[in-house]
Design a protein that fits this description.
Number of helices: 13
Structural class: mainly alpha
Order of helices and strands: HHHHHHHHHHHHH
CATH class: Mainly Alpha
CATH architecture: Orthogonal Bundle
Helix content: over 70%
Strand content: under 5%
Largest sheet: none
CATH topology: MetI-like fold
Shape: globular
Number of domains: 1
Number of strands: 0
Length: 303
């Protein structure tokens, strides 16, 4: 109880309590995360179980329209799958890919940023020039290139098996330069401080200084960047899936659901693409709102 009270009385908790935007973003994020993680228990139907899908229920409108049914709250798609259940499962897949790609990008970017900032010289120049070259291309183009190369190098029957790791790797490799540049800048400042110089004097090794002393002091900006990057990763995954090079149709994410519904948008079945699009907007908006608040709360110059 004392630990919770100390946290509740801290500056960051005070900032959160007095920010309606942060509260709204937190509530929306928690609701969406619970819905995604609890999809097997919260979803009224399993949209990916072919035995439970009935084609006679295809293209049913939402329940509040005249032809709608109460057991299909948001209607059904062209295959008779419950759209509300598909949204919960699709959000879970989008979040899984988003979190995995952000974690991988953080590991690569933080490691290279620490090495570049602490070592300096040619190593720093080489890593930063690679990052600069990659940043000159749009992230979606880098992800498309990596995804295309992987698909061309793998046999056709294994494409669905490697779809998830390839997608995660493509998004992560497109995002690591941002972490590397942020960590390098913070490391350049930290390595000249007294505690680093004292560690060198007593004979602490370079890797230990980087990962045990410098790293904890440069994680503040990285945390903010990771929050914003999660929203970017989700959008990138949705874009790739919308273009048909993302997750397999048997495990569709929000991007795949939007792509499938786009074919029916102008034929009157608007709910098939509108609801997945709204879910994607709410998910990205809530994460971005949290990221904006976190950036302001952790930046003493803005307080």
């Amino acid at each position: 109880m004392n630990a919770f009270q100390r946290f509740w009385d801290s500056d960051i908790a005070w900032s959160w309590r007095h920010s309606p935007v942060a509260i709204f973003g937190t509530v929306m994020t928690i609701v969406l995360f619970i819905g995604a993680l609890g999809a097997p228990w919260l979803a009224p139907h399993n949209p990916f179980d072919l035995a439970s899908v009935d084609l006679m229920d295809a293209l049913l409108p939402p329940a509040w329209q005249s032809e709608g049914q109460l057991n299909y709250l948001l209607g059904t798609d062209s295959q008779g799958r419950d759209l509300f259940s598909a949204l919960l499962y699709g959000t879970r897949i989008s979040l899984l890919i988003g979190f995995a790609s952000v974690i991988l990008a953080m590991v690569v970017g933080i490691g290279l940023g620490l090495i570049a900032g602490y070592s300096g010289g040619r190593i720093d120049a080489f890593i930063m020039r690679v990052a600069d070259v990659q940043l000159s291309f749009p992230a979606i183009l880098i992800a498309l290139l990596i995804d295309g190369v992987a698909r061309a190098a793998v046999p056709q029957h294994l494409l669905d098996v490697i779809a998830f790791p390839v997608l995660v790797g493509a998004i992560a490799l497109a995002g690591w330069p941002q972490y590397a540049r942020t960590v390098r800048g913070s490391t350049l400042v930290e390595k000249n401080k007294e505690y680093v110089q004292a560690a060198k004097v007593i004979g602490v090794s370079g890797p230990r200084i980087m990962f045990h002393h410098v790293l904890p002091n440069v994680l503040g900006p990285v945390l903010v960047l990771a929050t914003v990057h999660l929203a970017t990763a989700i959008i990138t995954e949705a874009t790739l899936s919308f273009l048909g090079v993302g997750v397999p149709p048997t495990s569709p994410s929000l991007g795949t659901l939007i792509r499938v519904g786009n074919d029916f948008l102008f034929s009157g079945e608007w709910w098939i693409t509108i609801f997945p699009g709204l879910m994607l907007v709410l998910l990205v908006l809530s994460v971005n709102l949290l990221g904006d608040w976190l950036r302001d709360a952790l930046n003493p110059k803005l307080n």
